Amino acid sequence: QAAAGGGRAALRACGVHNVCRLLSRRAHGFYARDAGVAHRKNLGLLRKIMCQESTKFKNVWTTHSASPIAYERGRIYMDNYQCCITSIAQQPRLIYQKSKCAKSEKIEDALLLECPLGELLPSPSDYKASLIVLTVQNWLLRLSADSGEVLEKVYLAGSCCKFFRYLSWDTPQEVMIVKSAQNKLPAAARQAGIQQTVLFYLAVFQVLPLSFIGMLEINKKIFGNSVTDVAVSNGILIVMYSMGLVRLYNFKAILEQFMEQQFHLGQEFNWNGQVGIVGKYPFGLPCNIKITDTPPLLFEASSLENAFQIGGYPWHYIITPNKKKHKGVFHICSLKDNALAKNGIQDMKCCSLEPDWIYFHPDMSGRIIHVGPNLIKVLKLKEVKNHADQMEIAEDFTIVANRENCVNNSVTVTASGRVVKKRFTLLDDDPEQETFKIVDYEDELDLLSTVAVTQIGADGRAHLDFHCNEHGILLKSIPLKESWDVTYSHEVYFDKDLVLHIEQKPNRRFSCYVYQMVCDTARDDD
């Protein structure tokens, strides 16, 4: 009530009588006592400090491991999540180290769970960050992010499924999906003529407090024989087929229509002749959502390699025509009527080993980012002049790789005057030319980050650049000290004042390089 009264007072004080204008003014920090104003000011100051010429990023820590290294919100996880290191301190330090786990306790996947704002939760531990992990033996565990202590445990697999492998969000930090590996019969069973109709199992959970919504199966009899994969995102069930077809269904409607009975974790149940406790070993979870008929189809599209994305305003989708010759060609179409937007065919005509890629900008602006070997295009949707019902794709800005010193003449003349003709031309992503490898967005600082790499011989050099997200202007360039081999797998995280580079080398060798911001007016060599 006090907050509401304060909002009304602010309205009266500034003479604003329109809710949309009030929200816009709040977003720009017009009201000093408004929640979040101080945080926005601090982030604005951090961005200015970071982009100063005297500010540098120093390599403060390096480690190597024989097992994968993961990063989540200021925490570095090693040894299959048994070791946790904070990257927030001046130099990364150990948070906890658990004893080495048995192969039967190996963690297959993990999600970071953060406390929702403004909600009353049943346990004090719910207000702190935790890690939800899925083990190879089908246990779903909630671990304390500060100690690794097991806070909750749920056994997933009863008699129906033995191979849960993947965690994902339907609604981030609210609804979680646990997906099984694809069910495949042994060769002997297939030769005996035994048919396998269930392809995947999906278990659905509400988080904080952790509660079981239901489990369902993806069956050939309902969705067809050629299903290759499924996913759930933002209330939509996405079913992918071997011929490139993608079909969308209303997942919430499926849960409501086909749920046979609701169950709660820890509840005793008698289900299909089985008696047990929900989420406890050996019974696990009941498959209480039985899809008996094909759900109403929301949308379908055919795209090469099932590549399909939705975004923008008004809603549009991006596909590649379902023929190999069209690889690297992207069509941007209206979700309302499938109409191709004006200038909606995007083709960089790259001649490269690695294809270009395209996606909707994660800043929720409705823009589109198209990344090629030497060019990044940020595109926007806008109305066609004098045709309000038609949209066109226009360039907002571009970022170009630095290839000023690159000479690629097909004809050269030697010192003796002999003319030499090359029989080949360089690829657009030739390692000896600066090439974009990673593009990311830092939402709290509103910066677009790019990693560009140049490899001369065995030595590759990379630099991380920060660009203004609104106009694409280069604000800061950070050279990475370690050599970058383009044949290895790389991940780069930019998180406020931290840069973290994870590298995977052959034979499962992993390296992690941590850089932290330092303000040094002396301009030393660090």
TrEMBL record:
GO terms for cellular component: Cul4-RING E3 ubiquitin ligase complex. It comes from the Eukaryota. The keyword Zinc does not apply. Keywords: Membrane, Transmembrane, Transmembrane helix. It holds the Pfam family DCAF17. The chain crosses the membrane at residues 198-218, 230-249. InterPro entries: DCAF17. GO terms for biological process: protein ubiquitination. The keyword Transmembrane helix applies. This is DCA17 factor. It comes from Pomatorhinus ruficollis (streak-breasted scimitar babbler). The gene is Dcaf17.
